[in-house]
């Protein structure tokens, strides 16, 4: 009896989670571009259930700062981009406004290897490390 009730409860939770996941909007190429190098590297580094989260926060040496991290959460206002291999990138709606049309790349140089936001059409200038930017004031 208890096992049957637990099974029904588990099935309801799984069904709700499945519906919740399907509700999230998918990002388009016009909103965020992802280089093949970034998509390949993302698939290599994520664990089960992890996604690459892109955020924009106030601060940094140029006014706004990119925050890029692995995250298992999926918030109600997140938009999702999925690679052919199944890895995912998420951006909340507010942050997307500050990087609409930008490209996610994976860059390796002598100092570090990291995911970066490049070619952001709404950014006017940025710091030399590429982690902060100022908005274009058209």
UniProtKB/TrEMBL annotation:
Pfam families: Fe-S_biosyn
Superkingdom field: Eukaryota
GO MF assignments: 2 iron, 2 sulfur cluster binding; 4 iron, 4 sulfur cluster binding; iron ion binding
Signal peptide from the UniProt entry: none
Membrane spanning residue stretches: none
Gene3D superfamilies assigned: HesB-like domain
GO BP, one annotated term: iron-sulfur cluster assembly
Domain Core as annotated: residue spans: 31-130
GO cellular component: mitochondrion
Stated family: Belongs to the HesB/IscA family.
Name the record gives this protein: Fe-S_biosyn domain-containing protein
Species in which this protein is naturally found: Caenorhabditis japonica
């Amino acid at each position: 009896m208890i096992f049957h009730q637990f099974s029904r409860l588990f099935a309801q939770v799984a069904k709700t989670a499945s519906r919740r996941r399907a509700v999230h909007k998918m990002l388009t190429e016009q909103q965020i571009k992802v280089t093949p190098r970034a998509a390949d590297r993302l698939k290599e580094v994520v664990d089960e259930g992890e996604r690459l989260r892109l955020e924009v926060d106030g601060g940094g040496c140029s006014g706004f700062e990119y925050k890029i991290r692995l995250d298992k959460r999926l918030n109600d206002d997140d938009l999702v981009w999925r690679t052919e291999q199944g890895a995912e990138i998420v951006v909340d709606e507010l942050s997307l406004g500050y990087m609409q049309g930008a490209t996610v790349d994976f860059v390796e140089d002598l100092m570090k290897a990291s995911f970066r936001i490049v070619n952001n059409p709404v950014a006017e200038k940025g710091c030399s490390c590429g982690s902060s930017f100022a908005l274009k004031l058209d």
